[in-house]
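Sanity check

After download, print the first record. It should look like this:
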Amino acid sequence: MSSDKAPSWQGQMAAPTRIILVRHGQTALSVDRRYSGRGNPELSELGREQAGAAAERITSGAFGTIDAVVSSPLSRTMATARAVADGLGSSLSVVDGLIETDFGAWEGLTFREAATRDPELHKQWLGDIDVAPPGGESFAQVGERIAQTRTALVEAYSGKTILAVSHVTPIKTMLRQALEVGPQLLFRLQLDLASISIVEFFPDGGAVVRLVNDTAHLQ
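Expected structure tokens:
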């Protein structure tokens, strides 16, 4: 009998890098459904509770051993990540590429306020990932940034499991890239606050999405 390791169902031989993706907890802007990109609101009281619940579930070992914790540099993600890192007794590293979309002049506005301010541009933006808010970043640009960030993470943590705390658009983008599907996913996938998703990237190509928008810890 051969002792050679059997490939995965997709044909990969090397161990994947597993990324546990956690969206940050609630902020005041989340409550009002305002565009919240590079602005830096703190977690609300409920947001801190959500971060604690996510941390408790993760540190219980529900998703196996976590080798590293990384986070977007913004306060809401750092606080969420810190809750996990403290529970694990782990250090916390900042990964700038995990930061949220830059919504430019729409930062802090509601959907209706942005649509009223720039009606034609806002309508185009909703259906075209190459269109950016005034002074902001398009979803296509976010995609380029996340692809680079993902590659760097897979290289740095090859074969390991990392927990990455980020924001709604970067997480959706990473899931979209793993699935190799069109931009419609960005507009149709629900991703709740403090939710957990899991994706694996193989160094020799391919990816597997194992979990999406899990909020069992918030029930």
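If your output differs, re-run the checksum step. Summary of this record's structure: The chain has eight helices and six strands.
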